[in-house]
Task: structure prediction
Amino acid sequence: MDDSYRHVSLWKDVSSEDWEDWHWQLRNRIYTLDQLKQVIELTPEEEEGVAKRDGRLVMAIPPYWAALMDPKDPNCPIRKQAVPVSGEFNIAEHDMKDPCGEDSDMPVPGLVHRYPDRVLFLVTEQCAMYCRHCTRRRLVGVNHGLMNNHEKTFAYLRAHTEVRDVLISGGDPLMMTDAKLAQVLSKLREIPHIEFIRIGSRTPVTMPQRVTPEFCEVVKQYKPIWMSLHFCHPKEVTPRLKKAMDMLSESGVPLGSQTVLLRGVNDDPATMKKLMHELLKVRVRPYYIYQCDMAQGITHFRTSVETGIRIIESLRGHTTGYAVPTYVIDGPGGGGKIPVNPNYVVSVKDGEVTLRNFEGKTYIYYEPGTEKAGAAVGASSNGNGFSSIPDYVP
Ligand SMILES: *Cc1c(COP(=O)(O)O)cnc(C)c1O
Result:
């Protein structure tokens, strides 16, 4: 039983049956200043950000997430991702409404077809929680009907035989009922050229109660379904979260994580390394770290690119390879994901490749074709002590 919420007076008498019911979690989300004041002590920036609701992305915080927030610390990473601040109303010079240029790559409303063989299918505008760093804030939290007509999308996908991979996202696909989700998956499974289906979701992280045995039955029925989950801080990996991850893994769903690099939340190597380790412990493979997009009103979350490169540098070689995601910048205006890496190739000259390793030591790799003419071939010793052992002949 999850008793982690009883310290919050607002929910101290809530039964565990209610707490475990994702519909209860949704119905009891925090939307208003008055409700929020019963959970945390607000700073003036937060109070202004919450009160001035017109023109910003809606606030909605599931009780599960709210109970993880530190009521006294405005720098709490859980709190920063959920509570609006006045900074959201600052539009900086380079900010864009549609930073990844998705709208111009939509052949059908709600379907982004940018890469040759795969599409991004936005199925709903709803999320369990609205992340303050949301890059798709122009579309989510309001019902404008953009994503209502799935039939047009299915027709497009049936006609486009080059599409082999569909990423179902939104909003958050887990805001759909199991029946509706099953319907979407079944329609996609009927299309013979679609061989890979994944769901992008943050709901298992912000409201793990959504991962029910019934949901697991749906993903099993349409297997194989992969999931990309959105994690930003090691504090998100709670015992309750672990239970949801176990249920998904044990239903045969390969799990990956996507992390947005956020100032004051995870922009230091120690926090990021801890997050990656916590993810591996719950069988989630770190997939991407995203540079924070230039979306309107989230400049206070952005870091330098150097910060991201330093984080990758601190991971590669220093810890398990599985714990090292790919750091990418979504090319502003529609370039797609562009990997940004520390440079380990020091120089390339006449087939001589000078590399540096994670400790900064250099090594030379000779490309084929750089051998001096007449050099011995098949010499009896290569210096490692193994060459004199004859090959095994049966
Ligand atoms: C991220 C994204 C995808 C999937 O990219 P992968 O690198 O395969 O994970 C597909 N389409 C769009 C528009 C995307 O932004």
Summary: Residues 344-387 form one domain.
